[in-house]
Structure formats: C-alpha cells, structure tokens
Design brief:
With about 425 residues, this protein is α/β, with parallel strands linked by helices. The chain contains 13 helices and 10 strands. One of its GO terms (biological process) is extracellular matrix assembly.
C-alpha cells in the first residue's frame, strides 16, 4: 500500500507515453505536422568529429548526396583532436567538393564547443543541421527537416534514428525495438504541443541565430566547476524551449547508426544517458511551470518516476517480491513486442526484427534502473565525451584512406 504513489506515477507516465500522446496525434490528423515547401534557406551541416576513423567518410559522402540544392548547402567537419586517422578520412571525403570544410580544434573542447565553432564559421547559413559523425543520413533528410520550419518561432526540427546493425545479435535486435517506441510513440505528447524536450544530435536542424543567442549558456555549462560534455542535445533543446521557441520532431527525416552490440557498450550508453536525463530534468524544474500544463505534468512525473523506480526495485528485493515485478515487466514488454510486430509487419524482413527480441529488456530495465540511477547521481560531474574513449586513449587500428575503393562509397542508406 505504501507504494501506491509510485504505482500512480507509473500509470501517469505510461498513459502520457502510450495513450494520450498517440491519441492527440490521431486527433489532429494532418494538422499534426505542417510543412512549407517554398522555404529554401542556406544550410550548413556541422559534424563534430572525435576518433571516428573511416566512419566519417561515409557520413560526409551521404551528406553530399542530399537532394537539397548544392549551391545552398555547406558541410563543416570539426575535429576535436582525434588520435586516430579520422581527419585523413574526412579530407578524403572532402576531395573535389569545395562545399566541404574540415576544421581542427586547437585542443580537445568537447562536442558542444566543437559544434559552436562550426556554427560561427557558417556565416552565410540561416539553418544549421547537426549530424553525428557515426551516422549515415537518408538522402531526403535535410529537405524533410527544412520544410518543417513553417513559422519564425520554430527554432529546431529533429529527425529519427534507425539501427543499422539491427540483425547483429540479440542486443541490437532489442535496441531496434526500443528505438521504435522511443521515436514512434514516446514523443507524440510533446510533438502535439510543439515542445519536444530532447532532439537528438544524430540529426537535428536549428536556426543559426538561436544557437548564437544561446552560445554563452551552452559554453558555460558545468557542474561543480567541471565542464560537462555529455547530454548536450537534451540541454540545448531544453534551453530552446525555455527561451519560448518551438521545437518540432518528424519521422520523415531519418538517419542510420550502429547500436551497441555488447552489454559493456550498452551499459556505458545507458549510464551516460541516465546522467543526461537526471541533470536535465533536475535543472529544468525551475522553469518547468512555463511549459504547457500537460507537458509540465509529464515532465515532473518522468523525473519522479526516474528517482523512485530504483527504490521500488530495492524494496521488492528486500521483501522477496522481485519475481512479481519481474513478471510484470515481462508482461508489459511482451505486449510492446507484439505491438511492434503488428506495426512493422508491412516492412521487408531485413528492416524489422522478431517482436520477442524485446523480451531481454524486461530483465535489463530493472537492473539498469537499480544500478545506474544511483551511480549516475554520484558521477554527474563527469566531463568525458564517453563515446569514443578519452582523449588520452590509444587510437584503434583502422584502414588507411588510401586503400579506399568505390565499393565503400555510401549512398545514404545502410548496406
């Protein structure tokens, strides 16, 4: 009985994510996403680079294949002192393309400051598209993002991410389904009020003047005097909303990236994301009341559940009721797996995975909540990129750009 408030939190979050959000999307119909095909601004794509190796070549080549007027498109790669051959691969991709620039930071500055440097360099651009260095962007992605800037108050438009290695093993199959719900369902409530609280750096477009306006805030981000290099995407999106701009998300602009294929990689990612969630949700409490009331309730309930859920896990372990909560997890996850299978049944076999692939999440969810939420709270002042190893790590071996053949050229979709 003492856990009733937590059960209530769970119901509120579940309702907002899986019932109210999709209901509002269907209720609004065509009004849910407005587009303007007459808007053709100058665009600069900024790619922060750190120890990506050959992957940056495929990223740049996919960006060069965009169906957006080439005379209006510039690509700026900003290397953050990579210790592998990333710069060589970036220069290889830029050969013969005067609209591609490769810049190098004088010292390791972190992803956000690297992006800010690219934004300053794009003096002629009206829109900045941020793309991570490990993604391959669909050919129509830039155009689909740009056509969502239907009003001057729309400051950012984000796209979705697909898992390129979805069939590699049980882990990547599970993450494919997790990505499906995170993007196909969970953002619907925020999209309904044009206050999407997290737009991924994998693929998001911003008005340049808004990024310049927020630059002092972004540059000064720190905890206990330690500059923070994780969660930049979520922090930036929240600052945009805080300054009364609209944020939009579309499923029509998308890219592909490789998901972690090992438990170590997955746990590292989840710890980084947990820190980001906690820092952002806690910091945003001071102005959450300025959001739409429905979004405010959703925002506060997510934070409360995030903090309370580990207590539930520990409580069930101590009282011998862990198997009950585990059974409940399997029931919910199994239902979601069935829904995923129904929603993707029209896709080719290579573009979907079995619905049962989501079942491992029923065990990983309580484990990651119980362990990583407390750990994240104790390590909020981490200053590492945490995505390509530390700047002092030894570089991973990679093929030489000189050995590149035409078979490695990306066409904007995964092989």
């Amino acid at each position: 009985m003492e856990l009733f408030p937590i059960h209530l939190l769970f119901i509120v979050v579940l309702t907002n994510r899986y019932i109210l959000g999709p209901f509002l999307r269907r209720l609004k119909g065509k009004r849910f996403e407005r587009v303007d095909d007459t808007y053709r601004p100058r665009v600069a794509i900024v790619v922060p680079l750190f120890n990506e190796g050959e992957g940056i070549f495929h990223t740049v080549r996919a960006l060069l294949a965009q169906d957006y007027p080439r005379e209006l498109l510039e690509i700026i790669v900003v290397d953050d002192c990579s210790r592998d051959d990333s710069v060589a691969w970036a220069n290889k991709a830029a050969e013969g393309h005067p609209n591609v620039r490769v810049m190098s930071n004088p010292e390791n500055l972190g992803k956000r400051k690297g992006i800010n440097r690219g934004v300053k360099a794009a003096v002629d651009a009206e829109i900045i598209v941020s793309v991570d260095s490990d993604v391959v962007v669909d050919r129509s992605a830039v155009r689909q993002l740009i056509r969502r800037f239907v009003h001057p108050n729309v400051a950012a438009v984000g796209g979705r991410t697909f898992v390129s290695n979805r069939h590699q093993n049980w882990m990547t199959r599970m993450i494919e389904i997790k990505f499906h719900f995170a993007q196909q369902w969970l953002k619907d409530l925020e999209r309904s009020f044009r206050q999407v609280m997290c737009l991924s750096g994998c693929l998001t477009a911003y008005r340049r003047h808004v990024l310049l306006q927020l630059e002092p805030i972004l540059e000064a981000r720190a905890i206990a005097g330690v500059p923070i290099k994780y969660g930049e995407d979520r922090f930036l999106t929240r600052q945009i909303v805080k300054h009364d701009y609209e944020t939009v998300y579309t499923l029509d602009a998308f890219c592909f990236t490789a998901a972690p294929s090992t438990l170590a990689g997955y746990f590292s990612q989840q710890l980084r994301w947990r820190r980001s969630n906690l820092v952002d949700l806690l910091s945003g409490l001071s102005h959450a009341w300025r959001l739409h009331p429905v979004i405010t309730v959703h925002y506060v309930s997510q934070l409360a559940l995030l903090l309370a859920y580990p207590v539930v896990i520990v409580h069930n372990l101590l009282t011998g009721e862990f198997w009950d909560i585990l059974a409940f997890h399997f029931l919910v996850i199994g239902l979601l797996g069935f829904i995923y299978r129904m929603e993707t049944r029209h896709l080719p076999e290579d573009r979907r995975v079995p619905g049962a692939s989501f079942l491992p999440m029923a065990l990983l969810m309580p484990v990651t909540y119980a362990l990583f939420t407390p750990l994240a709270l104790l390590t909020l002042d981490s200053g590492s990129w945490e995505t390509r190893g530390s700047p002092t790590a030894a570089p991973a071996p990679a093929a030489s750009p000189a050995k590149l053949t035409s078979s490695t050229t990306s066409e904007g979709t995964p092989s």
